[in-house]
TrEMBL record:
Name of this protein: 6-phosphogluconate dehydrogenase, decarboxylating
One Gene Ontology molecular-function label: phosphogluconate dehydrogenase (decarboxylating) activity
Binding site for substrate: 101, 127-129, 186-187, 191, 262, 289, 447, 453
Subunit structure: Homodimer.
BP GO annotations: D-gluconate metabolic process; pentose-phosphate shunt
Key words, A-Z: Gluconate utilization, NADP, Oxidoreductase, Pentose shunt
Matches recorded under NCBIfam families: gnd, PRK09287.1
Domain 6-phosphogluconate dehydrogenase C-terminal: 179-469
Function recorded in the entry: Catalyzes the oxidative decarboxylation of 6-phosphogluconate to ribulose 5-phosphate and CO(2), with concomitant reduction of NADP to NADPH.
């Protein structure tokens, strides 16, 4: 029988996704620009129902109609090159899925362009790395709903299943670029989680005089409670690993403190800036990575710029618990901002996003999988139009109770000279968001003074301009 679906791109993600689909009982066509990669996969898995092709025409012709094709190629020019080769070969009603980490605006444009020839185009976020692709990723598909319905049974089978209720970690996200947008925010949130965990690790290392066994044990302990998540779990694991190059030290002490990035965190911040939504958590995580990359300059500066002479006295055990609470508080602020950003994007791009479902499909398969995502689903089940997660009872209660802890942690870190930009962003956002009155009245006065930008009054409607240059 003809393959039900085909995968283009036989690098690690495409290969693993093809194997995942095949393992659910499908025959899968495979193709890669460089034929030797296709050949290697076919040879390595000769016992499986994979149908290799060595020209894109043969690949397209091998497929059952309507054709279902998943591209897993390098985002950007690679994706465009493949689409341009495919367009003349596809028929109306075929479904082309881009599973790469594509910028959502490119997906909107491609969806609209291909739609003109009747070709359905789905931009699908895939999270979970190479193991996720093989065993069950979290999938965020956006595009024509009727096209999604044609691939939904396959996507549901290959996706991760939540531990809580066995539900597949895939749902129709919305039109055109909605899937890639949600994946972008997912990655931004991932940056935020990683920044907050690394700040906690830094504080714990300081408190425990660099005894990494104790730091690892603390993360293990935290993973049993409300912070339970994949990223906390791998952090505990990482911190126990010894150097593989012969020294007695832990590997983490040997890894250069320069963080890389592939741009999805930056895209999230840029989009938040465009939409006018506060996104200080992801942005401080992006900046945290950027400043880490200035290693040489930091080494020089560390010899010139002194920090505080001594850290305040604290009770270590009590303080560890405060860091745990500060981390959970900050994580809540980060997700509150991420979901508020998606709400604004949904309104701007006219996507009917279901936030409860989005949290639901992040419960397994993806990098930010965590117990607490269920709490987000619960919050949107109670009120689908919630303005901000902080206004939900569960989250309101936690952040009110944990605020003293994060205030203590941030004060201590500032006095001890330990950078905690993520924690600071979190507590600042909380204090700004809950302020009935902010000092923006003065900013409006200044704008009106130097630029006649006008202002509104808080006691009557209308637009006002004050005669700043006239004597009263
Ligand atoms: P890469 O992102 O490294 O891309 C390599 C693939 O793109 C190869 O199949 C390569 O073919 C193909 N390709 C390139 Br490069 N330029 C091409 C062109 N002009 N025409 C046709 N094919 C071209 O692979 P990956 O790490 O497997 O990731 C695939 C996609 O999945 C990416 O968009 C990535 O961002 C996304 N993603 C990755 C992860 C992850 O954990 N790695 C997770 C989630 C999503 P060749 O063999 O002929 O060079």
């Amino acid at each position: 029988s003809k393959p039900t679906i085909g995968v283009i791109g036989m690098a690690v993600m495409g290969k693993n996704l093809a194997l995942n689909i095949e393992s659910r009982g499908y025959t899968v066509a495979i193709f890669n620009r460089t034929g030797s990669k296709t050949e290697n996969v076919a040879k390595e898995h000769a016992d499986k129902n994979l149908v290799p092709s060595y020209t894109i025409e043969d690949f397209v012709n091998s497929l059952e109609k309507p054709r279902r094709i998943i591209m897993m190629v390098k985002a950007g020019a690679g994706t465009d090159a493949v689409i341009n080769e495919l367009i003349p070969l596809l028929d109306k009603g075929d479904v082309l899925i881009d599973g790469g980490n594509t910028f959502f605006e490119d997906t909107i444009e491609r969806n609209q362009r291909l739609d003109k020839s009747g070709i359905n185009f789905i931009g699908m976020g895939v999270s979970g790395g190479e193991l996720g692709a093989l065993q069950g990723p979290s999938l965020m598909p956006g595009g024509q709903k009727e096209a999604y319905d044609l691939v939904a049974p396959i996507l549901e089978q290959i996706s991760a299943k939540a531990d809580e209720d066995g539900k597949p970690c895939v749902t129709y996200i919305g039109a055109n670029g909605a899937g890639h947008y949600v994946k972008m925010v997912h990655n931004g949130i991932e940056y935020g989680d990683m920044e907050l965990i690394s700040e906690s690790y830094n504080l714990l290392s300081h408190l425990y005089n660099n005894d990494l066994n104790k730091v690892a044990d603390t993360f293990k302990d935290w993973n049993k409670g409300e912070l339970s998540s994949y990223l906390i779990d791998i952090t505990a694991n990482i911190l126990t690993r010894k150097d593989d190059q012969g020294s007695d030290d832990f590997i983490v002490n040997k890894i250069m403190d320069k963080a890389g990035n592939k741009g999805t965190g930056k895209w999230s911040s840029q989009s938040a800036l465009e939409l006018g939504v506060p996104q200080s958590l992801i942005t401080s995580a992006v900046y945290g990575r950027y400043i880490s990359a200035y290693k040489d300059e930091r080494v020089k500066a560390s010899k010139v710029l002194d920090g505080p002479k001594a850290a305040p006295d604290i009770n270590v055990d009590e303080f560890v618990e405060k860091i745990r609470k500060a981390l959970y508080f900050s994580k809540i602020m980060s997700y509150a901002q991420g979901f508020a950003q998606m709400k604004a994007a949904g309104e701007h791009y006219d996507w009917d996003l279901d936030f409860g479902k989005i949290a639901q499909i992040w419960r397994a398969g993806c990098i930010i999988r965590a117990q607490f995502l269920q709490k987000i689903t619960d919050a949107y089940d109670k009120d689908a139009n919630l303005d901000n997660l902080l206004l939900d009872d569960y989250f309101e209660n936690i952040v009110e109770n944990y605020q003293d802890a994060i205030r203590d942690v941030v004060s201590y870190a500032v006095k001890a000279g330990i950078p905690v930009s993520g924690f600071m962003s979190a507590v600042s956002y909380y204090d700004q968001y809950r302020s009935e009155v902010l000092p923006a009245n003065l900013i409006q006065a200044q704008r009106d003074f130097f630029g006649a930008h006008t202002y509104e009054r808080n006691d009557k409607p209308g637009i006002f301009h004050y005669s700043w240059y006239e004597e009263q």
